[in-house]
Design a protein that fits this description.
The chain is α/β, with parallel strands linked by helices and 343 residues long. 36% of the residues lie in helices and 16% in strands. The longest helix has 26 residues. The protein binds 4'-deoxy-4'-aminopyridoxal-5'-phosphate.
């Protein structure tokens, strides 16, 4: 299949002369810096590296992916929003999502005034390929967003490869929860698919949601457009330092141990939920959360809130469903004990 990234990019972005920052024009680390209108006093007085090269170097070594294939955003929410700004002409282009899914694709589409095609997932929360096929040749369909494992359902999708092999627009795979999943990341497929963007984040498995750093892995061509379009210093030095500190062998081992702990807790939690009469259904999950169906989600949600246990009420998107994040052993126990009292 012929993929022409230049043709997918908005004309104004293709022709954009990007902002050239002081740190673009002089990249050295030594000297008397009188070029960026910074204050000479203080500890946080300097602008950070606009391309976060030290972090990318570490990620590159960790995942055997070239620095040229990595973009870092202010959370993966910035990675999502930039995809709209690079590829989608407002009031003309469209994006496609599989519903129910992560809410920001729709919000970003609305902010950017881009039409959203929303295809319902099947009853077991898989992609309905027959529904999708008629859209694959639509020239104005620029991006298909695939969240796998999917939020809020928790499952992974089976037909991602089919979409990659049959769609010549951008395939955006949101892997925010991939580190909890037994499925392999699509990160290594970027060399085979120049139109593939794989987003990941430091917010979930890495336990750094407050730091706001997300990652995009994609072809060099796509990453160039990301760098061209992003705000010059999109990740603060403080946030870069936190991520750099986290990318060492000892901490990586800790992160992996915590993932195992969370997955083990998930198993225990599922077992305990199964024993509760008020739980009607527990959906399959590859993520760090569990979607359950109950008799009356609004009521149970409210009763939990009264006991200071906050879950996510998804009743408005999937009837009578609650999404429960796997917490610490103590937190999970408190949840189960509270629910037992409702029985
Ligand atoms: N994608 C998915 C599927 C998410 O659930 C979330 C956050 N809940 C994000 C992206 C955004 O994550 P970040 O903190 O990296 O902006």
């Amino acid at each position: 299949m012929k993929i022409d990234i230049q043709k997918l990019v908005r004309k104004n972005i293709l022709n954009l002369k990007p902002y050239s920052s002081a740190r673009d024009e002089f990249e050295g680390e030594n000297g008397i810096f009188l070029d960026a209108n910074e204050n000479p006093f203080g500890e946080l007085n300097r602008y950070p590296d606009p391309y976060q090269r030290k972090i990318k170097q570490k990620l590159s070594e960790l995942n055997q992916i070239s620095i040229k294939n990595i973009f870092l955003g202010n959370g993966s929410d910035e990675v999502i929003d930039l995809a709209f700004r690079i590829f989608c002409n407002p009031e003309k282009d469209k994006i496609l999502t599989f519903s129910p899914t992560y809410g920001m694709y729709e919000v970003s589409a609305n902010i950017n005034n881009v039409e959203l095609i929303n295809l319902d997932l099947t009853d077991d929360f898989q992609i309905n390929l027959e529904n999708l096929k008629p859209y694959l040749n639509d020239e104005n369909l620029k991006i298909i967003f695939i969240c796998s494992p999917n939020n809020p359902t928790g499952n992974s999708f089976k037909d991602i490869k089919y979409i990659l092999d049959n769609f010549s627009g951008i395939v955006f795979i949101d892997e925010a929860y991939i580190d909890f999943s037994p499925e392999e990341s699509f990160r290594n497929q970027i060399k085979n698919y120049p139109n593939l963007i794989v987003s990941q984040t430091f917010s979930k498995a890495w336990g750094m949601a407050s730091v706001r750093v997300g990652i995009a892995y994609a072809s060099e061509e796509i990453i160039k457009f990301y760098n061209k379009t992003k705000p010059p210093y999109n990740i603060s030095q403080l946030n870069q330092n936190e991520v750099l500190d986290a990318l060492n062998d000892e901490n990586i081992k800790l992160v992996q141990d915590n993932i195992k702990l969370i997955l083990n807790e998930k198993k225990i939690l599922i077992q305990s939920l199964k024993e509760l009469k008020l739980v009607k259904r527990i959906f399959a999950t590859d993520a760090n959360f569990i979607l359950i169906e109950v008799e009356n989600a609004d009521e149970i949600y409210q009763k939990l809130v009264e006991e200071n246990v906050i879950v996510r009420n998804r009743n408005s998107v999937i009837k009578n469903c609650l999404r429960i994040t796997v917490g610490s052993p103590e937190e999970n126990l408190k949840l189960i004990e509270t629910l037992q009292n409702f029985n």
